[in-house]
UniProtKB/TrEMBL annotation:
Catalytic activity: 2 a quinol + O2 = 2 a quinone + 2 H2O
Domain Cytochrome oxidase subunit II copper A binding, first and last residues per copy: 125-237
Species of the source: Paenibacillus septentrionalis
Protein name, per record: Quinol oxidase subunit 2
Record's keyword terms, sorted: Cell membrane, Electron transport, Membrane, Oxidoreductase, Respiratory chain, Signal, Transmembrane, Transmembrane helix, Transport
Family assignment from sequence similarity: Belongs to the cytochrome c oxidase subunit 2 family.
EC nos: 1.10.3.-
PROSITE patterns to which the protein is assigned, alphabetical: COX2_CUA, COX2_TM, PROKAR_LIPOPROTEIN
Phylogenetic placement of the source organism: Bacteria, Bacillati, Bacillota, Bacilli, Bacillales
Domain Cytochrome oxidase subunit II transmembrane region profile, first and last residues per copy: 21-119
């Protein structure tokens, strides 16, 4: 009885731990605050339900078979050693999973195209651009339209599409705000595009979702979503009260180490693209960066015609 009691205690302990964890923290991926995250949540739930339709009956039938046909004294079940095929059963256990896979594949392909990260979100408002640079171990955010920069946090207006341009100073990382959408890699020599939008004001957790060394766990940031008026007031305040980000500051940021939250009233011209292209040989050009820059020319006039 002791081994059984120990196993039962372990299972109950794990179950209790999961319940307590669920009560103390939100499941960020399942708490969407924007249209992209909401669509991704729908996909997660749909695929889970489809898989459960197959998995739960299989588990139940397996338990029944193990119990029903266990070896026991005075068994009276008939012995049929030559039984090996039943067409109806074969159709059931092959047909149902096949139909489920077809349904799952169709839904997944549809959502994959629907959630293409570089396609602009349909909106009546013009998107704003935020350039994101991952460094060891900090995040640099630059606003080319507003002319300001921040470290380890940023602001964005509610109900307004944001076009994130992503690159890396050196090590590849992954930019992720669970409440707003899925992650996308930051890579040196590349300018990846990610559209996100928030439909509720608040402060949302963001992080680097890729292992990059000693302090990768501290590569977190806050995405602060405010009204347009509050966003404009914040921009004006930063311009009026903060110092400029200099070339020397940029070189210091590139040194491995953590950094406190900071904000700057301006930053060097073409900073994002200079960092992105710093390891590209003279005369060469990142094909992806060229494609991204070229496609932006068309985005200004057609951003509202596409659905993320």
């Amino acid at each position: 009885m002791r081994p059984v009691f120990r196993k039962l205690s372990a299972v109950l302990s794990i179950a209790l731990l999961l319940v307590l964890t669920g009560c103390s923290e939100q499941y960020l991926v399942l708490d969407p605050k924007g249209p992209i995250a909401a669509a991704q949540k729908d996909l997660i739930l749909i695929t889970t339900i489809i898989c459960a339709v197959i998995a739960i009956p299989v588990f139940i039938i397996t338990a029944i078979i193990v119990w029903r046909y266990r070896d026991r004294p005075n068994r009276k079940a008939s012995y049929k050693p030559d039984w090996e095929h039943d067409t109806k059963l074969e159709l059931v256990w092959w047909g149902i999973p096949l139909v489920a896979i077809i349904i799952l594949a169709t839904i997944t392909v549809n959502y994959t195209y629907k959630l293409e990260p570089s396609v602009a979100i349909e909106s009546e408002k013009e998107p704003i651009e935020i350039q994101v640079t991952s460094l060891d171990w900090k995040w640099l955010f630059t606003y080319p339209e507003q002319g300001i920069a921040t470290i380890n946090y940023f602001h964005m207006p509610v109900d307004t599409p944001v076009r994130f341009k992503l690159t890396s100073d050196m090590a590849m990382n992954s930019f992720w705000i669970p409440n707003l959408g899925g992650q996308l890699y930051t890579m040196s020599g590349m300018a990846m595009t990610l559209y996100l939008m928030a439909d509720e004001e608040g402060s949302y957790y963001g992080s680097g979702a890729n292992f990059t060394g000693e302090h990768f766990a501290q590569m977190t940031f806050n995405a602060n979503v405010t009204s347009q008026e509050e966003f404009d007031a914040w921009v004006d305040e930063v311009k009026a009260t903060e110092v400029a980000l200099t070339e020397e500051d940029v070189q210091n940021l590139k040194v491995k180490g953590t950094h406190e939250v900071a904000q700057y009233s301006s930053f060097p011209d073409n900073l994002f693209y200079d960092i992105m292209m710093q390891y590209v040989e003279d005369g060469a050009e990142s094909a992806h960066a060229h494609h991204t820059t070229t496609s932006e020319d068309a985005e200004g006039s057609s951003h509202s015609e596409h659905q993320h």
